[in-house]
Amino acid sequence: MKLGDQEASGNVEDRRGLRIGGGLGVGGVMIAVVAYFLGFDPSTAINVAEQVTAGRAGQQETREAPKGAPADEMGQFVSKVLGSTEAVWGRIFQQSNSQYVPPTLVLFEGQVRSACGKGQAAMGPFYCPNDAKLYIDLAFFRDLQTRFRAPGDFAQAYVIAHEVGHHVQKLTGKLKQAESAQASVRTELQADCYAGVWGHHAGAMKQLEAGDIAEALNAATAIGDDRLQQQSQGRVVPESFTHGSSEQRVRWFKRGLDSGRPADCDTSSAL
Ligand SMILES: [Zn+2]
User: Fold this and answer.
1) In the predicted model, what is the mean pLDDT of the chain?
2) The pTM is what?
3) What is the 3-state secondary structure of the chain?
């Protein structure tokens, strides 16, 4: 991607390096040990202890998280991609006389507290509609490159744009609680199509380079449900739902990419 001229978004919360009680504090360990000797199941006790420490640390975390585009290379990249999605969706919303309220992107490491519950890096990136924030662990980008063999900056941008797609769904009332696997696939494929819509306009803004499209299509293939065995934590986030096959993900992403119009992302009929 060529993001040199793109302004970095300030709607970023950098929670990397902030602990949220992943390790047990001294008090927590004491509870676990005491419970063990009283004959409880120690794993239950550790859960309780984790909640106690996490509750305290959770408040701290919100206070300390720096806001604004981080200075490091990855932080800048993510903030610029987010800035690009803000420019694109801002214009699209304006065309229909509505206002785009951008989401906040939270960078985290390992574990994170969201209004949808505790997020784990193992879940992959996710969007929480309750606080309108996208949660991204940069380790997922490394996974994308190594484990899923989908390298490239546009592959990473596609992942961000997909999560932004869920935010657009929330703003337009299209993000519904999926009652069935079928409904969740519709939601996910529409987010892929919206990611394509962004890609279309990013191309018009001269932000794409040769090979970028192939990177995104490769990523869409790599993270289709038939390829990716999801380890969901049972939280109410769209990412824990099923996403559609590789072929479907590629097809819907391309549809948005070709047309650039969100109206062409109607997944309510044929998938
Ligand atoms: Zn999704």
Assistant:
1) 79
2) 0.79
3) CCCCCCCCCCCEEECCCCCCCCCCCHHHHHHHHHHHHHCCCHHHHHHHHHHHHHHHHHHHHHHHCCECCCCCHHHHHHHHHHHHHHHHHHHHHHHCCCCCCCCEEEEECCEEEECCEEEEHHHCCEEECCCCEEEEEHHHHHHHHHCCCCCCHHHHHHHHHHHHHHHHHHHCCCCCCCCCHHHHHHHHHHHHHHHHHHHHHHHHCCCCCCCHHHHHHHHHHHCCCCCCCCCCCCCCCHHHCCCCCHHHHHHHHHHHHHHCCHHHHCCCCCC
